[in-house]
Amino acid sequence: MTSRLNPYLTFGDTARAALEFYRDVFGGTLTISTFSEFSDQEAPGADLVMHGVLETPSGFTLMAADTPPGLEYTPGSSISISLSGADAAELHGYWDRLSEAGTVSVPLEKQMWGDEFGLCRDRFGIAWMVNIAAPATADSGVSSNDGVGG
């Protein structure tokens, strides 16, 4: 297996609902292990998610867990998940689902670098950046970068 980078999200006690929501958005196979599978089934928080993995048909991998019992949950504010590419229909669909019942801070629209870009927090408080690459121009044969803003 080659190395890969993917986000790992931590929730207080809503990892299962969040992962099921993301499965509804992106499709794919969701695997969830609870704390009770690896410890006392009667312990507090035994039904919480110890580790969850969503593998999507588009090749995305999203991992998540609930905060273990006894540890303090501190929501992250400096991490975002970036979705980028050239398939406008697919990315608009993700945006619509992720921003629904969430908060849009930058509407998904054409930006100064030529791509469509938007920033939102979903209903679970996770920040998402969506960047849709501008179509290639006839003159250059290339599109803008597939990164954000640069």
Automatic annotation (TrEMBL):
Domain Glyoxalase/fosfomycin resistance/dioxygenase: 5-130
Record protein name field: VOC family protein
Pfam families: Glyoxalase
Gene3D superfamilies documented for this protein: 2,3-Dihydroxybiphenyl 1,2-Dioxygenase, domain 1
Taxonomic classification: Bacteria, Bacillati, Actinomycetota, Actinomycetes, Mycobacteriales
InterPro entries: Glyas_Bleomycin-R_OHBP_Dase, Glyas_Fos-R_dOase_dom, PhnB-like
Top-level taxon: Bacteria
Native source species: Nocardia suismassiliense
